[in-house]
Amino acid sequence: MQDKKIRAFFAIDLPDELKSKVVELIKLLQQKNPGENIVWTKQENLHITLKFLGDILPQQCAQFLPRVMDAIAQVPKFVLTFTKVSLFPSKRAPRVIALLPSPMERLVALAYKIEEQVVRYGIPAETRPFRPHLTLARIKRPSKNEFEDIAVPALALEFKELTLFRSEITHFGSRYEVLRQIALK
Question: Measured between alpha carbons, how far is 169 from 137 in angstroms, rounded to an integer?
Fold first, then answer.
């Protein structure tokens, strides 16, 4: 068995067509907020994280993956829509610019369903409430930025599969590799 840890997370991957539309929104935000204090998400890295697993051993993954697959197989497909740009943790001291998906309560329930399975195999439970979001950018240094009154075009996604990603941190940013896709009901 392999002893080398991998950095992994469960997420909703976006189809290329939706990623292109989100990039158009990012370009609008960049025009209103030029400067080096914001690191914009690359198109290939757009996703909604449902459970960050951290650095895990491959054997841990082999143990919890069948349990997660069984739990997810009972979840019906549904449509997510994105209608609002939000700032985390607050508007006064933002660190993240994100799109909020709806219905949030279904994603929260799904995230907890995944967490319920993985904590049995040594993955720490999240200490903060889960807030589903699609990260558009990270703000390195808060400054005068304009994010209010940004019209979000109609964006929708049929959520039909969960993706387990491996994340590798490089000098050029994060690089993600699909390890497994799990279909919903």
Answer: 17
Backbone torsion region of residue 120, taken as left when φ is above 0, otherwise alpha when ψ lies between -120 and 50, otherwise beta: alpha
Nearest to 22 by CA among 38, 44, 37: 44
Q: How far apart are CA 50 and CA 114, in angstroms?
A: 8
Q: Is the CB of residue 119 less than 8 Å from the CB of residue 138?
A: no
pLDDT tens figures, 37-92: 888 999 999 999 999 999 999 899 999 999 999 999 889 999 999 988 888 887 77
Which is nearest to 157 in space by CA: 177, 178, 132? 132
Domains of the chain: 6-183 (3.90.1140.10)
Token pair, residue 97, equals: 């610019």
Statement: residue 1 has pLDDT above 60: no
Model confidence at 2, in pLDDT bands (50, 70, 90)? Answer: low
Beta strands in 19-171 (DSSP E): 38-40, 47-56, 78-88, 96-102, 134-139, 155-159, 161-170
Give the type of residue at 131: R
